[in-house]
């Protein structure tokens, strides 16, 4: 079964092709084959394409073979449009291996033509139901459809201020975020001719420095001995900033170790020493590339094609201790697949970003995020659009938050840089900024008295099911306001209190954080020192029977008593100026008693309650809130019979209603 990554040779077909081109002086098949075997994809692709064009149409086997090989090499070089043309021509001339259909599907997918790709993947799976790459290709097409409807919150923009007209990729931040290192093939005077692998000038490592105000400078080649006439790139810096690891690719017959990891030490201000080989493979025939150092400095992650891996290229790590290295450890099947996994970036010690074409994705290489759980298992998630596209997306680096920055909540955002060759017909990668905007889940509001006057200096305490939030409390400002950051999908209990006031509890459940959200919670604290009115307490006419609409207000009183188990209160009922004094006194006493009866029926201990009917002996004193509602009253007015008598009939009715009231006041504290 052809996996989609292993080479297949058809001796008879190759023999025909070799005979046909034996006399070719300018381009020879054997040279194209050698270039392909050396992974010089751009050079090999152009040679196969030349051979294809020079082959007569009636030589269908030769046309099919060279077309397919050109497609394979253009695809490896990131030239998807030319790769598609090669595969289409291979199918046109009857290339005998059905893998050409799989390659067509993959190339359509990488070009964003998901409808055509899906149809080809389904057809291929009907013939080869165990094909891993057809299965994940189909899954990726379905995932792409889902992403159109439900894109992620990531924001991206091309880093035009840093990119060149060539290739730019492989970013890595300095540990303190004071600089960004990256790989570039931008034009330069030194170095070899264009690479036969990429078609570009050899890569060097560049640096962009950031000043004290956070402004980025312009890219410049790193100083020191790192950059050579060969390809250097994909760096990583140790946590103390003293050592840089990077990939060095040497071309030529004199170099046994063509792609290996090197390191250099800090030398002078911003410079680096000459690089030296990091001998972690102990096998000159195996590549090691794309290093990434963990935040602790204990592990170096990298890419290799060691024998016994899960597929093409896998991600490994080695233990680092005093510049010595342990044995390579494969990260296992949660990360590695029959495809290629490359460009690891370890964020902290338990979050890994990497690129893969072996997990279901949007096309080509996609960037994945893996988190390590307490059992040692990795949980892998595709980062989705717009970070990923149908093109090759890889080499993501998260910007360090810095040692002096406040520790972010779990749902706060991140930003950094990644690479993609989207929108570049040549297949050359470029740098992109990405940002996941922080999700701020906040609770804010006011602490006021029951007349809605702000209480400055009140304390609002909060405890969540995951523990305290911050220091566990905030203090209200002069206007009585407060604000605190919390987590999504969490239950909280809040308590507001202030000197001279009763406590108030509130329970709140925040939703799963999908976007920034603010919850508003206001507290209205009852006084410990003066009587507080109970709003909307109604009785049947000329009776002490509570009406049903009174229960909501009384239930609020039950909550106050529950929140403050240390108090004993008096329920007082008041009448208006109408009727005989003795009658009003008796009616108000019975009404106060009916409130006590309701409270005890709801579980409030009788010894915490007493009652008294005041009749019309204690007329209402106008508060600021009442004065705002009634322009004929001012704060401090006392609604005695003498005050009410000269008013209009309508105004008298308002005063009578204000005088008919039920209140409670604290008469004893610190009950045991």
Automatic annotation (TrEMBL):
UniProt cross-references to SUPFAM superfamilies, sorted A to Z: Carboxypeptidase regulatory domain-like, DPP6 N-terminal domain-like, OmpA-like, TPR-like
Signal peptide (residue range): 1-22
Transmembrane segments: none
Superkingdom of the source species: Bacteria
Keyword annotations from UniProtKB, A to Z: Cell outer membrane, Membrane, Signal, TPR repeat
Main localization category: membrane
Any one GO CC term of the record: cell outer membrane
Domain OmpA-like residue range list: 526-670
TPR repeats: 98-131
PROSITE patterns the UniProt entry points to: OMPA_2, PROKAR_LIPOPROTEIN, TPR
Subcellular location: Cell outer membrane
Xref: PANTHER family: LIPOPROTEIN YIAD-RELATED (PTHR30329:SF21), STATOR ELEMENT OF FLAGELLAR MOTOR COMPLEX (PTHR30329)
The protein's name in its UniProt record: OmpA family protein
């Amino acid at each position: 079964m052809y996996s989609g990554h292993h080479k297949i040779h058809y001796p008879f077909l190759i023999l025909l092709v070799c005979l046909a081109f034996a006399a070719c002086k300018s381009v020879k098949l054997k040279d194209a084959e050698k270039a392909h075997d050396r992974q010089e994809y751009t050079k090999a692709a152009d040679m196969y394409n030349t051979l294809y064009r020079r082959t007569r149409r009636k030589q269908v086997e030769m046309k099919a073979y060279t077309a397919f090989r050109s497609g394979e090499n253009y695809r490896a070089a990131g030239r998807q449009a030319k790769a598609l043309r090669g595969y289409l021509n291979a199918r046109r001339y009857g290339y005998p291996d059905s893998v050409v259909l799989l390659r067509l599907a993959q190339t359509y997918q990488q070009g964003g033509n998901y409808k055509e790709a899906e149809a080809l993947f389904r057809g291929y799976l009907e013939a080869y139901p165990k094909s891993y790459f057809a299965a994940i290709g189909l899954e990726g097409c379905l995932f792409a459809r889902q992403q159109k409807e439900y894109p992620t919150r990531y924001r991206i923009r091309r880093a035009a201020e840093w990119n060149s007209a060539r290739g730019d990729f492989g970013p890595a931040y300095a540990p303190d975020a004071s600089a960004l290192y990256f790989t570039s093939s931008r034009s330069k005077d030194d170095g070899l001719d264009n690479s036969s692998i990429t078609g570009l000038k050899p890569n060097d490592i560049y640096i962009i420095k950031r000043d004290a105000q956070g402004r980025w400078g312009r890219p410049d080649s790193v100083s020191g001995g790192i950059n050579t006439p060969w390809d250097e790139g994909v760096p990583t810096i140790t946590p103390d900033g003293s050592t840089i690891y990077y990939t060095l690719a040497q071309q030529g017959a004199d170099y046994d170790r063509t792609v290996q990891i090197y390191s250099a030490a800090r030398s002078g201000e911003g410079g680096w020493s000459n690089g030296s080989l990091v001998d972690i493979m102990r096998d000159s025939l195996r590549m090691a590339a794309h290093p990434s150092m963990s935040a602790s400095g204990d592990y170096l992650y990298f890419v290799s094609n060691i024998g016994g891996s899960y597929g093409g290229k896998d991600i490994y790590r080695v233990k680092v201790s005093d510049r010595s290295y342990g044995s390579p450890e494969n990260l296992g099947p949660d990360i590695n697949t029959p495809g290629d996994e490359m460009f690891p970036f370890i964020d902290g010690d338990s979050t890994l970003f990497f690129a893969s074409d072996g997990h279901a994705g949007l096309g080509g290489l996609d960037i994945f995020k893996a988190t390590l759980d307490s059992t040692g298992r990795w949980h892998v998630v595709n980062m989705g659009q717009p970070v990923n596209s149908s093109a090759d997306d890889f080499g993501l680096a998260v910007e360090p938050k810095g040692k002096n920055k406040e520790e972010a909540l779990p749902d706060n955002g991140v930003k950094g840089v990644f690479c993609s060759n989207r929108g570049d017909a040549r297949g050359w990668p470029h740098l992109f900024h990405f940002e996941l905007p922080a999700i701020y889940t906040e609770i804010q509001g006011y602490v006021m008295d029951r007349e809605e006057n702000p209480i400055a200096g009140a304390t609002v305490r909060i405890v969540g099911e995951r523990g305290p939030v911050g220091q566990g409390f905030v203090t209200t400002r002069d206007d009585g306001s407060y604000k605190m950051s919390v987590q999504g999908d969490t239950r909280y209990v809040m308590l507001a209190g202030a000197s001279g006031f009763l406590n108030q509890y509130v329970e709140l459940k925040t939703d799963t954080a999908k976007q920034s959200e603010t919850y508003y919670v206001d507290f209205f604290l009852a006084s410990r020192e003066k009587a507080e009115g109970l709003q909307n307490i109604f009785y049947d006419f000329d009776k002490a029977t509570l009406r049903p609409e009174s229960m909501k207000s009384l239930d609020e009183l039950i909550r106050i008593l529950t929140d403050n188990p240390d108090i004993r209160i008096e329920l007082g009922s008041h009448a208006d100026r109408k009727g005989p004094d003795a009658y009003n006194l008796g009616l108000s006493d019975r009404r106060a008693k009916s409130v006590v009866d309701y409270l005890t029926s709801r579980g409030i201990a009788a010894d915490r309650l007493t009652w008294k009917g005041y009749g019309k002996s204690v007329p209402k004193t106008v508060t600021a809130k009442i004065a705002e509602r009634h322009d004929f009253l001012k704060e401090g007015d006392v609604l005695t019979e003498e005050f009410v008598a000269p008013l209009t009939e309508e105004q008298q009715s308002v005063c009578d209603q204000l005088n008919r009231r039920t209140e409670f006041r604290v008469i004893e504290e610190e009950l045991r």
